[in-house]
Amino acid sequence: MKTSNYIHKERKRNRLKEYDYSQGGYYFVTVCVDNRKDIFGNVKNGKCFLNNYGTIVKKNFENLKNRYSYIKLDYYVIMPNHIHAIIIIDPSSISVGTGRDLSQNKKQKIKSLSEIVGAFKTMSSKEIHLTGNKLFKWQRSFYDRIIRNEKELYYIRRYIEQNPLSLEIAKEFPDNLDL
């Protein structure tokens, strides 16, 4: 039997072990473009101006709330090479059908945060590829944080709102590590 010289590196776990990411809650996510390429637009005067690719990403992100009735999109910002967002999973918002249409009486399966983000990445990638950018891809996985209280929610919302301005300041003053 031939053995490989390849050493399997254990990947760092991205999600909390044994946490059910389909349960209700507020989740802060960051999804990045592969190799952090600026592809969705540019930042000027503290605002991100989206190009065609950024508009595709925005449309597909906003479509998540139509595709999955149990999620709400809170604050989000699409940056030139990533998106920051707060996704709320609210199982109580699922409407149960009544009457003769038995297909409406089936309980809708709540998808996990990974499945929701995966669907977004797949839909937006396909559409960007159809516009001719066949090389576009998202970075593997995504960053998430379970938002635990109102104070944390407040600071994350503020971070999202100020992200374009922070990027612009960092580009203008790259040597200032305190920014």
Give an overview in words.
This protein has 179 residues and is α+β, with helices and mostly antiparallel strands. It has one domain: Transposase IS200-like (Alpha-Beta Plaits, 2-Layer Sandwich), CATH 3.30.70.1290. The chain has a four-stranded antiparallel beta sheet with strand order 4-5-1-6, with helices on both faces. It has a two-stranded antiparallel ribbon with strand order 2-3. Helix 1 crosses helix 2. It is globular and about 50 Å long. The N and C termini lie far apart (55 Å). The mean pLDDT is 86.
Rg from Cα: 19 Å
Low-confidence parts, pLDDT < 50 over ≥5 residues?
none
- The geometry reads as globular
CATH architecture classification name: 2-Layer Sandwich
- How many beta strands in the DSSP annotation? 6
Q: What is the structural class?
A: alpha+beta
State the CATH superfamily name: Transposase IS200-like
Rounded average pLDDT: 86
CATH hierarchy class name: Alpha Beta
Order of helices and strands: EEEHEEHEH
Query: What fraction strand?
Result: 15-25%
CATH structural fold name: Alpha-Beta Plaits
Distance between the termini: 55 Å
For the biggest sheet, the summary is: 4 strands, antiparallel
Number of helices: 3
What share of residues is helical?
A: 25-40%
Number of domains: 1
Strand order of the largest sheet: 4-5-1-6
